[in-house]
Amino acid sequence: MAERGQRTAPDGVPARIGQVVMLHHGGDREEARRRLLDLWTELGEHGDPLHRCTLAHYLADTHDDPEDELAWDLRALTAAEEQRESVAVRALYPSLHLSLAADYAKLGRLAAARTHVRRARAAADVLVDDGHGAGVRAAIGRLELRLGDGGPGEELGIPSRRGG
């Protein structure tokens, strides 16, 4: 434990994940996947659950195969469950369940997709009223409509800042 007045080294994992996500968003999906997998190996199965959750969630987006994407999103949810009372983790649940719903929809597993989109909607109350929160809520609404879930979707009038 650091003594009073000493500084501890900041946790660099979130920044490292963020750098790789920027690489992915810049179009280098293969390199992003490779770097995220290297970081996953470095963290190990006993690494910080929030880091593993975030990392697996982003890793899912780097995969083309819907089964692989689902496997990584399930790893993200499993890691989140280890710290379910954490405010930071609770804020990830809407996006985690939305991703799982989309994964299951791609695989034609509509009952599972509907279950997760309902969970995403139920968890969305923790989202901040900002561009990200509005975007996630709008995406939940679009998927609810696509799945015929009967959720509130567009009738809530929640605009998307992501253009749709």
Would you give an account of this structure?
This protein is 65% helix and 0% strand. By secondary structure, the chain is mainly alpha-helical. The protein has 2 domains: 13-84, no CATH class; 91-155. The longest helix is centred in the C-terminal third of the chain and has 17 residues, at 131-147. The radius of gyration is 17 Å and the shape is globular. 33% of the residues are buried.
**Could you give a short account of the major beta sheet?**
none
Number of domains: 2
Order of helices and strands: HHHHHHHH
Helical amount among residues, as a percent range? 55-70%
* Total strand segments: 0
Shape: globular
What's the gyration radius in Å? 17 Å
What is the mean pLDDT?
A: 85
Task: Give the end-to-end Cα distance, rounded to a whole number of Å.
Answer: 48 Å
Give the structural class. Answer: mainly alpha
Strand content: under 5%
Number of helices: 8
Which regions have little confidence, pLDDT < 50, spanning 5+ residues?
1-10, 149-164
In short:
The chain is mostly helical and 164 residues long. It has two domains: 13-84, no CATH class; 91-155. It has helices at residues 13-25, 29-43, 49-61, 66-81, 87-90, 93-106, 110-123, 131-147.
